[in-house]
Design brief:
The chain is mainly beta. It contains 2 helices and 14 strands; from the N terminus they run ααββββββββββββββ. Helix content is 9%, strand content 55%. It has a 14-stranded antiparallel barrel with strand order 1-2-3-4-5-6-7-8-9-10-11-12-13-14.
């Protein structure tokens, strides 16, 4: 690689960094390493990671491209999709809750479009009055419908992405809805196989709160990530790492590796310091997953165990059509 090429990519990296800093300054996103706002935002399901592959990697996915599920982590990564692709993901989450995701992406020249639906079901819960008398059961669920677009810029060196989504939440006879956008950028280089990503999620407003004039704050988060495919690894290898700064909790880090084994098998270990557990003081810790490529389709599985809360299983089926 010539010095002129490195200089050009260095200028591109500087531009992306400036854009990111200006965006954060204008939006006033809090990025302190720690804060006292844990649990103060609504629509918490938006903070639950989408997809088996990202979850297996510890949730480090801001710089990964070419995956439909990546629209939930960094919409700029959709620019890496080369053909029409669909993904269906199911999650057995904590305390008998369940989540699902379906997405379809289609490239059009230097631009990629995607449509996604994410849902979260809390099942049936018992309702009691002030004296503990049983009043029956009620249900609770969340739904987010989004449209994403990613655009390659500066030749093949970078991409920008955005997702517009409508979010609906119901709790018994009460409901709330909000409208948000996610923004992202992805920079490739300065060496072959390396990429850098940045995204900010859930910017927007609540149109209607659950009751009265009160409206929940939105769970805005900044994600900065890195990925690299070493050229001389003994097996095809992907290394990933993210730093996450939410507006309603402490900053945390995630990292993972994806190893491609013979016969289309994938092994994915990961680690995350995301605060979890009933007290929020314990890190998520180790995650893991497996994948298999079946012709044009991929089947992925991920496992994570939350301290004193239980295990989470995710399965994703994705492929071109």
């Amino acid at each position: 690689m010539t010095c002129s090429c490195l200089g050009r990519r260095g200028r591109i990296a500087a531009r992306c960094l400036v854009v990111t800093m200006v965006l954060l300054t204008v939006l006033g996103v809090p990025v302190a390493a720690a804060n006292d706002s844990a649990g103060t935002t609504g629509y918490g399901f938006l903070k639950v990671g989408v997809g088996a592959r990202p979850a297996a990697l510890g949730g480090a996915f801001a710089a990964v491209e070419g995956d439909v599920e990546g629209s939930s982590w960094n919409p700029a990564g959709l620019a890496g999709i080369r053909q029409r692709t669909a993904a269906l993901s199911m999650t057995s989450y904590l305390v008998d809750t369940e989540a699902g995701f379906v997405g379809v992406a289609a490239p059009r020249g230097t631009r990629t479009w995607a449509a996604t639906v994410t849902y979260f079901s809390y099942g049936q819960m018992r309702e009691t009055d002030a004296n503990g008398q049983d009043l029956g059961s009620f249900g609770a669920a969340d739904l987010a419908v989004g449209t994403s677009v990613a655009q390659s810029v500066w030749g093949s060196h970078a991409s920008l992405g955005a997702t517009a989504k409508a979010v609906y939440s119901s709790l018994g006879d009460y409901s709330s809805d909000a409208y948000m956008v996610d923004l992202g950028l992805l920079l490739r280089g300065p060496v072959t196989g390396m990429a850098w990503g940045a995204s900010i999620s859930n910017l927007g407003f609540v149109r209607q709160g659950y009751a009265g004039g009160y409206k929940d704050s939105l769970p805005v988060g900044l994600r900065l990530g890195f990925c690299h495919r070493p050229a001389h690894a003994p097996l095809p290898l992907l290394l990933v790492a993210d730093a996450v700064l939410p507006n309603d909790g402490d900053a945390y880090f995630a990292a993972g590796a994806e190893v491609r084994l013979p016969r289309g098998l994938y092994l994915r270990p990961g680690y995350s310091t995301q605060p979890t557990g009933s007290t929020g003081d314990d890190p998520l810790g180790l995650t893991c997953g497996l994948g298999v490529a079946l012709h044009r389709y991929h089947l992925d599985y991920a496992f994570a165990s939350y301290p004193d809360l239980g295990d989470v299983h995710r399965v994703t089926l994705a492929g071109a059509f």
